[in-house]
Specification:
The protein is α/β, with parallel strands linked by helices. It is built from 16 helices and 21 strands. The strands form seven sheets. A five-stranded mixed sheet has the order 3-9-10-8-7. Strands 4, 11, 12, 13 and 14 form a five-stranded mixed sheet that branches. Strands 15-1-16 form a three-stranded parallel sheet. It is globular and about 75 Å long.
């Protein structure tokens, strides 16, 4: 039986601008990555380059602390003193983490199993309930669609951060440690047990002896070093990984084929998850080199999960098929035996959502997400629904919500003023958007990170539309006069005008139109910068 699903999507809790400011890597990140090296030589050179980077960071941080202490001694204003003291505290903690890293045996190290501490408390997470329904039947083909074809099959590197990478890799990959979807407790993934050091900076993992890549090769501890190697080597341009892995991972140590540890610069919550790094299959990357981008452009990487894209499963411009590994290493595992049921998942390219709905009604697709009221209330008022051949469902769950809304580039003039940012929040009438466009079906997030259980702060509340509160905030920023067009200005003539970059799809255009009209009531001019999705994303 075919089914419609109508998820209740939440709007973001605060008004932010869609134009994202993504901090890039400095030239220093690029220059520190070794060039033209195989893995063995890379380990030696990368260790040395990280040591040099740490020494420079310590020197620079000590200078910053000294300068701040001098400024503190010269400042009499209590508010400024408090701000400087907070900066000194943060810099001191950072300095301590750098010095801690200097005491480690390099970024990569190899040790004997006897060097693993004896007093560790190992966990295996096998006390949680089973996941999934044992009555589910395995087999068959599940058919869905994608609105655009991915620009590459590579897992990392140029253009790899596309909309399909989650379905192709991230969502079906097996991490070292997983979270139970109901209890939110740790359960085994690739690691069948793990332990945290006394200082809570290092996690020790023991790899399940059955774990293997879905090309049949066993998973080894050194695969996790290779995962870093292929991402930070200069054979590939990937500034995010180069910066993140150098700054957020302090050490990876291999003790045997099945045992490794990962150390981070300072203790973090949920350490078994935070310290987990992404592995790479060594055999697959045996040809890794300066031509990586071209050589691996359309070669899907094996993963440790239940599905993979076979050689004939990628039909460029047409479809991508994920095939279930019938010999999946965890197919009988307590937590995974009832999952991964379809033999194949076929994603066909269908650029038009209306055509996708027609294909669903014709039986060419197996389900359809109905996240627009027009589709739910009108386009599905059809005989197959009335006769019960297609069933529509609205369901609720407790899960992290995607924060749809506006994002602020806080480095831009005007937007770098907190009073203006708060005023923008009060100027956005999200409730009118919910009522007018989504017919009251959407909900309002109270903060950016809802659905994370104990990590979600219940005391944070979103700012509702308020003309008076918005104008109070803008007045604090100096916008006290109104022009003939009703838009607020500063005495020097500076106009309260902000540009919103957004996708040129109809729903977004409608939403921004409402925001613009409602903001005029406050005295804020919002300008629409409508771009094609690919252009806006870049």
């Amino acid at each position: 039986m075919l089914r419609f699903l109508k998820p209740i999507t939440a709007l973001a809790s605060s008004c932010l601008l869609l134009a994202l400011a993504v901090p890039g890597c400095t030239d220093d990140v690029e220059s520190k990555a070794p060039k033209g090296l195989g893995f063995d030589r890379f380990v030696e050179v990368y260790n040395r380059s990280v040591d040099e980077w740490l020494a420079n960071q310590i020197k620079d941080t000590e200078k910053q602390i000294a300068a701040a202490q001098t400024k503190l001694a010269e400042t009499e204003d209590e508010a400024k003193q408090a701000s400087i003291q907070a900066n000194i505290k943060a810099a001191t903690e950072l300095l301590e983490s750098f010095k801690f890293r200097q005491e480690l045996d390099g970024y990569f190290s190899f040790k004997d199993e006897n060097s693993i501490p004896d007093n560790l408390i190992w966990n295996d997470g096998m006390d949680q309930p089973e996941i999934g329904d044992p009555r589910a039947t395995k087999g068959g083909t599940f058919r869905y669609y994608i609105p655009s074809f991915p620009p590459t099959a590579r897992r990392f590197g140029p253009k790899s951060n596309h909309s399909f990478r989650g379905r192709m890799y991230d969502d079906i990959e097996m991490p070292l440690v997983n979270l139970h979807p109901i209890t939110a407790q740790y359960i085994p993934g690739v690691a069948n047990r793990w332990a945290i050091s006394a200082d809570r900076r290092t996690v020790f993992y023991e790899i399940d002896p059955n774990a293997k890549w879905n090309d049949g090769t066993p998973v080894k501890a050194t695969d996790y070093m290779w995962g870093i190697y292929v991402r930070v080597s200069d054979y590939v341009s990937d500034p995010y990984y180069k910066q993140y892995l150098r700054e957020e991972i302090a050490n990876v140590t291999v003790y045997s084929d099945r045992k490794l540890s990962v150390t981070v610069p300072s203790p973090k919550p949920m350490m078994p998850l935070y310290a987990s790094v992404i592995p790479a299959p060594q055999e697959f990357y045996s040809d890794y080199g300066p031509d990586y981008t071209e050589r691996y452009q359309w070669k899907p990487q094996p993963i440790i999960g239940a599905y993979r894209v076979e050689e004939d499963g990628l039909k460029k411009g047409l479809s991508i098929t994920l095939t279930r590994d019938k010999d999946f290493w965890a197919k009988d595992h307590k937590y995974y035996k009832n999952l991964y049921n379809p033999d194949r998942i076929v994603y066909s390219l269908v650029r038009n959502t209306s055509k996708a709905l027609e294909m669903f009604r014709a039986g060419d697709l197996d389900y359809q997400v109905l996240n627009k009221p027009d589709t739910w209330y009108r386009k599905t008022e059809i005989p197959p629904v009335f006769d019960g051949y297609i069933q529509r469902y609205t369901f609720y769950n407790q899960y992290p919500r995607p924060p749809y809304g506006l994002y602020i580039n806080v480095t831009k003039p005007l937007l770098n003023d907190q009073n203006i940012r708060e005023g923008i929040c009060y100027s956005c009438n999200w409730q009118k958007i919910i009522d007018a466009i989504f017919q009251g079906d959407y909900g309002r997030l109270e903060n950016f990170s809802e659905g994370f259980g104990a990590f979600t702060n219940p005391d944070v509340r979103s700012r509702r539309f308020s003309i008076s509160k918005a104008q109070e905030c803008f007045a604090k920023a100096g916008f006290t006069e109104k022009g003939e067009d009703g838009i607020l200005r500063r005495p020097d003539g500076t106009k309260l005008s902000i540009s919103i970059t957004h996708y040129s799809i109809p729903t977004y255009v409608q939403m921004v139109a409402i925001l613009i009209e409602e903001a005029k009531k406050v005295g804020l001019e919002l300008r629409s910068d409508s771009l094609e999705p690919n252009v806006a994303f870049k």
